[in-house]
Amino acid sequence: MSGLFGDGQAIALLLFAGFLSNEVWRVLGLVIGGGIDESSEFLVWVRAVAAAILAGVIAQILISPPGALATVPDMVRYGAVAVGFAVFIVARRSVFAGVIAGELVVLAGKWWMG
């Protein structure tokens, strides 16, 4: 059974370092953020910063793609951004829907164009 799951100590370390240490901050954020008004200026600012960071990452990946993404033609990447933005607008500003749509376009374009 140890051959299937690898070293038990490594899994325990991964659970502790990757999951449990982050879970403390999630619970703390839930406790503290439970009473914050969603339309407050602070949360509007936080959402704006998160969107700006996502836009920066997308721009960096679009201009100089890393790894296997470099094999995807430029027009497929630019088209994925356009489709992702359109879905973002149509889906009532859902970042999740926009990102998923863009990813699907990249995958379909890579598969179709070879």
Description:
The protein starts with a helix and ends with a helix. The protein is built from five helices and no strands. The protein has helices at about 1-5, 10-35, 40-65, 75-90, 95-114. It has about 110 residues and is an all-alpha fold. The chain folds into three domains: about 5-35; about 40-65; about 70-114. Helix 4 packs antiparallel against helix 5 (about 95-114).
Throw out a few tags for this protein.
114 residues, mainly alpha, flat, transmembrane helix, transmembrane, Branched-chain amino acid transport protein (AzlD), membrane, Brnchd-chn_aa_trnsp_AzlD
Strand content: under 5%
The backbone outline, from C-alpha atoms, is flat
Give the helix proportion (percent range). Answer: over 70%
Order of helices and strands: HHHHH
Number of helices: 5
Provide the gyration radius in Å: 19 Å
* Termini separation: 40 Å
Number of E-state strands: 0
Number of domains as seen in the coordinates: 3
Name the poorly predicted regions. none
Going by helix content, strand content and strand pairing, the class is mainly alpha
Mean pLDDT: 87
| Largest beta-sheet details | none
